[in-house]
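cron nightly-structures :: item 1 of 1
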Amino acid sequence: MKRRMRKVKVVATLGPASENYDTIRGLFEAGADVFRLNMSHGTHSEIRDKHQIIRDVERDVGRPIGILADLQGPKLRCGTFANGAEELVEGASFRFDLDETPGDVSRVCLPHIEIFEALEPGAGLLVNDGKIRLKVSTCGGDFADCTVEVGGTISNRKGVNVPDVVLPLAALSEKDLKDLEFVCGLGVEWLALSFVQRPEDVTEAKKLVDGRASIISKIEKPAAVKAFRSILEVSDGIMVARGDLGVELPVQEVPPIQKRLVRGCRKVGKPVIVATQMLESMVESPMPTRAEVSDVAAAIYEGADAVMLSAESAAGKYPQEAVATMNNVAIEVEADPTYRQIIEASRTASRDSVAEAITTAAREVAETTDIKAICCFSHSGRTAILASRERPHVPILALTPLKGTARRLTLVWGLHCVETSEVTRFKMAVVSAARAIRNDGFATDSDKIVVTAGIPFNVPGSTNILRVSPVREKHIFEGES
């Protein structure tokens, strides 16, 4: 496989339905660009095995593949019940406290003192993914008396959400700290951070990661939505985690939030993933619903860098079909003239640096002349990401001598990533770009390309040159343009 026929990327989660070589290779061939390792499930040994299989597939297909490790984050759960479960009815009183005695219809343990420290009267508490809703009437340092607003069955260790307050909890639990060190040691490209409430959560994680991976902040809490700009500023990318957002916020608020977050990421040139329940019915069915297809299409029309499969590829009956469906929807949407109109209308001009001016010029040259592709040489990957921010109609080749950079950029919209040898002269960079263009089927000898790079070479952030070049090597050395 030489190239994808679409620009949005597909992230596929691995799990029990996708843990052997043949299936993971099949997912890649069906369209997966990045694989997600969910640290909520599986031992370190199992995660290591999946990581190795991905690297084996990468070697055999000859294309860089990105890996995203998703940390679990703190899990807030109630205690146990003497009867295993109780039925809470609307209007009833119910208490959460720190008493570890098994609960009954009137109370249960909530073993998280941080929640009681943050709660205020009027705050909401959600149990079992929001199926049960309670409102705090009175509270103290070790209890919260609530009124049941929406009843239902509450049972042992059900999850509890606290949407209305910022909890004094670190985004990284003890388990997360161990998982972080483990996956950074493996060599993943991206680390997804759960339970982000404030920018400090991200900066603390970045200190621990120490440059070994890039950080994606999962926006899944109302506090993160409110602090989005400052969280985005310190993050390397964003995941719109619509599942938890839809629990902690009224569901009708999630679509406009998704649009704002995607637009904000595009403006600053940071990749954004739209995630959760995109093709949920394909866990059990070989065909998605029409609503799900429209949902995937909407994220692509908005200009998201990537769309993500969770249970569909990790535990579903039809993992490869789910990836193929996402791939086919993307191809169809991107072929729609309306797609280009929407993308171009939502583009934000930014030329605050030489690199930004160069990548903007590359897109403008490609739009006004017969250019087949834009080729960006980059060590850090920043220039390629800036080229992606422009959302040009032609393919973008991200060329880098660093394997880790090539893998990391597989998440970014429109980037076809190629690992090259080190070059020290611009002419050799053009030759290397021309060869990659031909090898991967983007252009022929009679075509022209745009090449951007930095002089001096091998210095991150030095992009300062743009050239329109023929693909034919003879003409490159003859100095034709």
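cron nightly-structures :: done
The mean pLDDT is 94.
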